[in-house]
Amino acid sequence: MIKRSEYAGFCFGVKRAADLIDSCLSSTDKTVYTLGELIHNDDYNKSLVDRGVVILNGVEELEDVSPDSSIVFIRAHGATKETYDYLDSRGFEYIDATCPFVENIHKIVLREKETDDPFFVIIGDRRHPEIMSITSLIDGDEGERYITAADSRELENSLEKIPQTSQKRVVIIAQTTQNVNEWKISSKIIKKVCTNTTFFDTICLVTQNRQRDAVKISREVDLMVIVGGKKSSNTKKLYELSQENCDAVMVANASELEPSMFLGKNKIGITAGASTPDGIIQEVINKMTEITKKRKHE
Description:
This protein is of the alpha/beta class. It folds into 3 domains: about 1-10 and about 205-295, 3-Layer(aba) Sandwich (Cobalt-precorrin-4 Transmethylase, domain 1); about 10-100, Rossmann fold (3-Layer(aba) Sandwich); about 100-200, Cobalt-precorrin-4 Transmethylase, domain 1. It contains 10 helices and 12 strands.
């Protein structure tokens, strides 16, 4: 038996980014650049390269590029304030494919910053482009105006950096793909040490539903297969959540499946990260079906 999560695959923000670049490629003769990978999926990004898209590691690689013959894409994770400033100063045409849920966090930061200059606590991975885009909007260095904590454990180790006086408001936000349980634990920790706080649960609804369904299915099966890019934050969290209830494997595509993964496994669940195309999910399901059928006849 193979049970697929109804929430597997492209989320709204990723689909929007993919549709935007697909439409652009169909209607322009200009060279299309993306600042970093548009989404965290190697197979999808390879398909863009095959269509002529140039994936840049950073905005500095545009130094010798002519704005007149180029269109630049802002990735679904967003970009730093410095990136927007550079594109505007050079006169580049750009299409902003930032996920609306990430844009909402940007608006929260800018609004709250203007209200009373609070201290920000961000529950997320400081190395992730989404978090880098958010922190770029906060004037000042980490530890001075804000801190980031990947999880509740890191938050516990950083409490001394957070102002614990009622005179300084503390604003707490989360990466859109954060583990829901980690957010709840982190919120409780903050409430114990800070008296003047404002919480914004910025984990997107799709992420919450996807995580909840992964937990539900993983409690009903012997093996959970999670499909997604190795750099994908939300895919990794699905894997971690599933591991708590059953054996789990994380694969980028069907080629990474091995028959040995399914030995002794009769009930198999499958879900996928928000950047995983439906075609890849179906290929994984097809190969899983082939492997399990062959095993029954051995």
